[in-house]
From TrEMBL:
The keyword Hydrolase applies. The keyword Iron does not apply. GO terms for molecular function: acyltransferase activity; palmitoyl-(protein) hydrolase activity. The active site is at residue 430. This is Palmitoyl thioesterase CPT1C. InterPro entries: Carn_acyl_trans, CAT-like_dom_sf, Cho/carn_acyl_trans, Cho/carn_acyl_trans_2, CPT_N.
């Protein structure tokens, strides 16, 4: 999701004064250290899995250790060979060939009956380094639709020069890293795209996840917080014991689970030139913010995890506490929304003067914000909300993405936000993991707090309060005078950034995944092609389009870019905008565009994408101080449309037939370009698609609501090309 913003905004690693950051250590040493870090992670996971199995069978640690060596090694080798097969990706949806059936049967045999979360980690293949000639060819193909003839010839000449003079040397270093480290690109992606970015995390790096769209299980704020916090900590408990079942793509192919390790007890610590991610093995408290005050709330007693009702009692105590915020304490968290260099300098003073309070926040399992205002109050259940209902959703999204600039601790891996009317949501920092990871946790949380924990008839958590619990601990900040100005500057910058964001959220309920399935098309490719039509109508031109795809088929894989603005998509859009083309002709072009998008998506997922390879080549050139006009040009491009689909991964947790409103409504992220859009979407059940659009109010070229209307019209126009979709447009 928000990684689109960081990726498309990636520039050479510069300091705030414009000078180059010294890339130290030298490249060969960096590759060596990258591999060393990989092996340390492998050993940590090995011992973690051993300890987890031993905890289930006390006294069996030696047995666990022996069982994971010897014959088990051969199993992992065989499974790794099997998981290197990608032929299943290339098959027609719903059709499985005999080789794939045989492969699937063998995978199930070698996987064992009860795989744990990290069971497949040692068996996952490494992400391949594509042939550099193939990457350059695909890149040129992707920019052809958006460049004039003269510009295309110019970039083609740069590409030929790159292939002739520099490509082989840069590729050699990547191949070396491929053989030594777990992943040739992911650690550099985290380092240079996220941790070295000096921009504010708010809007630029964070993204949000919404509550149920049309229902709120209870209006009692403290009760919703109690159940949600308890559900999140249940998820953490299952995570620590590796009881979360590994994610299987299309029910067949396991995905890498490495990103799950840092969901909880994790904080991004600011540095002058680079940040670092600080992760604790455990944390027995959450940090809570309410009306400008910070509290430490313990989550465990001697008998274990506090009950939802006990947690509700603690949150209610905070809500009832009449004590005011201390001077400047109210706006302290705005520092986490400041440029990273500034926050790093101020944090040094804060750590000296208020170390205990700072450690309580940064060492918390996660951050909780009890907002004093309602959100999402007017969201109706009509197919196309309007007026107050639509404005309410937009304000709800804005509150989750930016808040008021000082009521979120943006450094935390995620912040749970509970509004005064019981609505809730997440604000997630992006460096530690990608959206499917937090989305998996969020689905579990929503399903557990509603269907497993539940609420009493009066809206409170079930069970009884615990009067013996000590009061939540108020955190006290001894703020030196010299940081008062920094807080004021940070607040002013955060508020300006927040006020400039234009959010628009709407559920499109004229049709959804079921209709697209009946058309025998990929739902994601259907939407991406329709988005090209909508954006062209909005801006009158084509632009580079960023769609995030995952590479977790490989060990420690993260994401790849699908360049969705293809020649085929452009041909379809032009046909739709010219009256002489008939519906059958437009439909034929639409199918070609969808097929092309599917091919690009599968290539990205199987490690044959364009952008991560070009990124890694660029980083090598920076280490070698080797100037490449071609790579410089690639990383100066503007992507004015950044898109992402939010996958629903655990539909078995929800009963969409009996409780159709109890499904997550997805989330969104900030725009990637000053004059661009951020668009995310989620298929809610079978007949609704919820869109989240963002843009900058300062741009005279964009308007989130205008693009939203174009998306509605484009979807209906595309549906009308199909015989069974014509009545949808007439009805709309």
């Amino acid at each position: 999701m928000a990684e689109a913003h960081q990726a498309v905004g990636f520039r050479p690693p510069l300091t705030s004064d414009g000078g180059e950051v010294e890339l130290s250590p030298p490249l060969l040493q960096e590759i060596y250290l990258s591999g060393l870090r990989s092996w340390k992670r492998h050993l940590s996971r090995f011992w973690g899995r051993t300890a987890s199995q031993a905890s289930r069978h006390p006294g069996g640690c030696v047995v666990c250790f022996v069982s994971m060596g010897g014959p088990d090694l051969h199993t992992h080798v065989a499974l790794r060979l099997l998981l290197s097969y990608h032929g299943w990706l290339l098959e027609t949806h719903g059709v499985m060939s005999s080789p794939t059936k045989t492969w699937l049967a063998l995978v199930r045999i070698f996987s064992g009956r009860h795989p744990m979360l990290f069971s497949y980690q040692r068996s996952l293949p490494r992400q391949p380094v594509p042939a550099v000639q193939d990457t350059v060819r695909k890149y040129l193909e992707s920019v052809r639709p958006v460049l004039c003839e003269e510009d295309f010839e110019w970039i083609s000449a740069l590409a030929r020069e790159f292939l002739k003079l520099q490509a082989s040397l840069l590729q050699w270093y990547l191949q070396l890293k491929y053989w030594w480290a777990s992943n040739y690109v992911s650690d550099w992606w985290e380092e240079f795209v996220y941790l070295r970015s000096r921009n504010s995390l708010m809007v630029n790096s964070n993204y949000y996840m919404m509550d149920f769209l049309n229902v709120t299980p209870t209006p009692v704020q403290a009760a919703r917080a109690g159940n949600a916090v308890h559900a999140l900590l249940l998820y953490r408990h299952r995570l620590n014991r590796q009881e979360i079942f590994p994610t299987l793509l299309m029910g067949m192919r396991p995905l890498c689970s490495a990103q799950y390790e840092k969901i909880f007890n994790t904080t991004r610590i600011p540095g002058v030139h680079r940040d670092h991610i600080h992760h604790l093995r455990d944390s027995r408290h959450v940090a809570v913010f309410h009306r400008g005050r910070f509290f430490r709330v313990g989550t465990h007693s001697q008998s274990g995890l506090l009950s939802p009702r006990a947690l509700e009692q603690q949150f209610q105590r905070i809500l009832d506490d009449p004590s005011p915020a201390c001077p400047h304490e109210e706006h302290l968290a705005a520092l986490t929304a400041a440029p990273r260099d500034m926050w790093a300098q101020v944090r040094k003073s804060l750590k000296t003067q208020a170390e205990e309070a700072l450690e309580a926040v940064e060492g918390a399992a996660f951050f909780v914000s009890l907002d004093s205002e309602p959100a999402g109050d007017a969201a109706g259940d009509t197919p196309e909300p309007s007026g107050d209902s639509a404005a309410s959703l937009d304000a709800y999204a804005h509150a989750l993405l930016a808040g008021r600039g000082h009521d979120r601790w943006f450094d935390k891996s995620f912040s749970l936000i509970i509004f005064s009317n019981g609505k809730l949501g997440l604000s997630v920092e992006h460096a530690w993991a990608d959206c499917p990871i937090s989305g998996h946790m969020w689905e579990f949380t929503l399903a557990t707090e509603c269907f497993q924990l539940g609420y009493s008839a009066d809206g409170h958590c079930k069970g009884h309060p615990d009067p013996s619990l000590p009061q939540p601990q108020r955190l006290h900040w001894d703020l030196p005078d010299k940081i008062h100005l920094s807080i004021s500057l940070a607040l002013r910058g955060a508020q300006a950034l927040a006020e400039n964001i234009d959010c628009h959220v709407f559920p499109f309920s004229h049709f959804g995944k079921s209709f697209i399935k009946r058309c025998h098309l990929s739902s994601d490719s259907f939407i991406q092609t329709a988005l090209q039509l909508a954006h062209f109508r909005d801006r009158g031109r084509f632009c580079l389009t960023y769609e995030s795809a995952m590479t977790r088929l490989f060990l420690e894989g993260r994401t790849e870019t699908v360049r969705s603005c293809t020649r085929e998509a452009c041909s379809f859009v032009r046909a739709m905008e010219h009256q002489e083309k008939t519906d059958p002709q437009c439909l034929a072009l639409f199918r070609l565009a969808v097929d092309k998008h599917q091919a690009l998506l599968k290539a990205a997922m199987s490690g044959q994408g364009v952008d991560r390879h070009l990124f890694a080549l660029y980083i090598v050139s920076q280490f070698l101080r080797l100037q490449s006009p071609f790579l410089d040009q690639v990383h100066s491009e503007q992507w004015q449309l950044a898109t992402s689909q939010i996958p629903v991964q655990q539909m078995h947790l929800f009963d969409i037939h009996n409780y159709p409103d109890y499904v997550s409504s997805g989330g969104g992220f900030g725009p990637a370009d000053e004059h661009g859009y951020g668009v995310s979407y989620i298929f809610t059940g079978e007949d609704t698609i919820t869109f989240h659009i963002s843009s900058k109010k300062s741009s005279t070229r964009t308007d989130s609501h205008r693009l939203g209307q174009h998306i509605r019209d484009a979807l209906l126009d595309v549906a009308a090309l199909f015989q069974e979709g014509q009545h949808l447009k007439r009805r709309a």
